[in-house]
Design goal:
The strands form 2 sheets. The chain has a 4-stranded mixed β-sheet. Strands 6-3-7 form a 3-stranded parallel β-sheet, with helices on both faces. The protein is α/β, with parallel strands linked by helices. It has one domain. 34% of the residues lie in helices and 29% in strands. Pfam families: HET. This is Heterokaryon incompatibility domain-containing protein. InterPro entries: HET, HetReg/Transcr_Mod.
Length: 153
């Protein structure tokens, strides 16, 4: 789905137990996003947030700035990155679509096998279901009420 030359962007394949992490920044224009990638070992003490998000329609895309060039990413990921930028601008982020070279089957296979470890090593995991819709706040309040009435302990 990504419309860029992945080998140019990613450079060399990741070493054993290495992952890529995103630094998300405000872009040069209002409502624009810029990303940078770095690599880190799962054995390091690097703190990052793992992101799980709704993929949605592959044709619904937005642009982000990466290494000075615009690339297209799915709208769901764009929304999640924007929310992350608004709430945790300094925290590194792991998101599968950008942190795994989707054009390199060998790397993709190795990274997918490590996904459980990637999520466990994260300081936190954020699940992005999309922007708030009418009735969402009421639904969340209802879930909290149910949780409070039926504690798990």
């Amino acid at each position: 789905m990504n419309s860029f030359n992945a080998s140019f962007r990613y450079g060399s394949r990741l070493a054993n137990r290495q992952i890529r992490l995103l630094h998300v920044k405000s872009g040069p224009h209002p409502d624009s996003i810029e990303i940078e990638l770095s690599s880190s070992s799962l054995d390091s003490e690097t703190q990052y947030c793992a992101l799980s998000y709704v993929w949605r329609d592959a044709n619904a895309t937005k642009e982000v700035l990466w290494d000075g060039q615009l690339i297209r990413i799915r709208e769901g990921l764009f929304g999640a990155l924007g929310q992350h930028l608004a709430t945790e601008p300094e925290q590194l982020l792991w998101a599968d679509a950008l942190c795994i070279n989707q054009q390199d089957d060998e790397e993709k296979t190795a990274q997918v096998k490590m996904m459980g470890q990637i999520y466990r090593a994260a300081v936190t995991t954020v699940v992005w279901l999309g922007s708030e819709c009418e009735g969402d706040a009421r639904a969340v309040r209802l879930l909290v009420e149910v949780w409070q009435k039926f504690p798990t302990e």
